[in-house]
Amino acid sequence: NDANDMNLGTAMLAQQVQRQSKKKQVNASNLPAKGVKPHVIVVGGGYIGIETASAFVGWGVDVTLVIARKLAMSKLFTVKMAGWFERYFEQNHNINLIKSTKVTKFIGTDRVTGVELSNGDRLSADM
């Protein structure tokens, strides 16, 4: 690994993700104007990813949750139960789920401003 690489551990699997930013600082001046909801991207559809996404929603942040599997929390629950949780979070917390996709790159120079996905899409983020 060189200084521009980072190892990202989720659940029991570790993946190497390329990043462009070397700084790890959140600067409030980079957030949207007052009255505009900031947007965050949470990576991982396990328990911690779901809880993190829920916390951000509770703080008034728009959330996109990117998960590599076809169903959130599928390693923790049966398909039926995982499906129920997924629908609950989409409908009651307005979490935007992007499934069967991996984050391949974090984008930004002074801070992370977005991610690139395995399907080639790019998503922007405020923090």
What does this structure look like?
- The chain is of the alpha/beta class.
- Helix content is 21%, strand content 30%.
- The chain has two helices and eight strands.
- It has helices at 47-58, 79-93, and strands at 5-10, 13-19, 39-43, 62-66, 96-98, 103-107, 114-117, 122-124.
- The strands form two sheets. The protein has a five-stranded mixed sheet with strand order 1-2-6-7-8, with no helix packed on it. Strands 3-4-5 form a three-stranded parallel sheet, covered by helices on one side.
- The radius of gyration is 15 Å and the shape is globular.
- It starts with a strand and ends with a strand.
The global form is globular
Average pLDDT, to the nearest integer? 79
Give the percentage of residues in beta strands.
25-35%
- Please tally the helical runs, counting DSSP H or I stretches of 4 or more residues: 2
Query: Biggest β-sheet: count, sense, barrel?
Result: 5 strands, mixed
* Ends distance: 25 Å
Strand order of the largest sheet: 1-2-6-7-8
Radius of gyration: 15 Å
The helix content is 10-25%
- The parts where pLDDT drops under 50 for at least 5 residues are 1-15, 23-27
Structural class: alpha/beta
User: How are helices and strands ordered from N to C?
Assistant: EEEHEHEEEE
Number of strands: 8
